[in-house]
Amino acid sequence: MRSTSRRVLVRCARQVGKTTTTSVKALHTALYQPASLVLVISPSQRKSDEFLVRVRSLYRASGRPPPIAREAASAIEFVNGSRVISLPGTEGTSRGFAGARLLVLDEAARVDDDIFAAVLPMVGSQGAIWALSTPWGARGWFYDLHEGDGAAVNGWERHLVDVHASDQYDERRISDTQATVSRFVWASDYLCEFEDADAQLFSSTAPAWAAPWRRTTCATSPAGRWAPLTTRSWSRCAHSCAARRCPPTHCR
Ligand SMILES: Nc1ncnc2c1ncn2[C@@H]1O[C@H](COP(=O)(O)OP(=O)(O)OP(=O)(O)O)[C@@H](O)[C@H]1O
Ligand SMILES: [Mg+2]
Q: What is the CATH code of the structural domain delimited by 7-171?
């Protein structure tokens, strides 16, 4: 919550307070920075709206904040001109905003690379991006941004809150949970490790030739043109930046 970084990655265990904490950040931004735009994106509209429910409940508990001017299931507008808007993680519906002061990506690991690329330009030059998630396998932009060691890489400040670091879990809850879930779920959802999916034939460290079906398209390529991927989703693009290893945003 005290971070002033404009790019924040939070890799968290289940139920440690990701949504609650970022709801506070979203509400604080809207109330203390008049006329600010806060965008919330989750894999589905229902989850994004759930985030707004959390924001509303914090708002009601916060004493005498600026009144709400307008509100709907997916938007709150305050009299100070600030808006908090929830969007589904689907292409098309998530376009059309600009200059956001804060972009929250909740359950970020499940937000597709394409959506991530599409929403990045919506953040203003002074805006911040907070991406929070439990890992979801060794794939996708959220995983890629965790490549390399260090607390901050490529401008992204990283935080890790696994089950042992969270006050939401005491020793008993930890042992009960570990005894209940599978090894894969424990490693991924509670120890926050980027596990290869059990059903994955080749590991994520396999060479590119071993996984030729892992392909994606470039948004600016002609329809039907495929861009061959390396084993990582930050890949070679068949478009203008061909032969360069780049994040999906580079060629859009
Ligand atoms: N700082 C906190 N202190 C006490 N309780 C908290 C705190 N943050 C969250 N909680 C409680 O913990 C529970 C989980 O919170 P929240 O839904 O924000 O977690 P999450 O990490 O987003 O969960 P999920 O993994 O299911 O998305 C809720 O009941 C919430 O009220
Ligand atoms: Mg949550």
A: 3.40.50.300
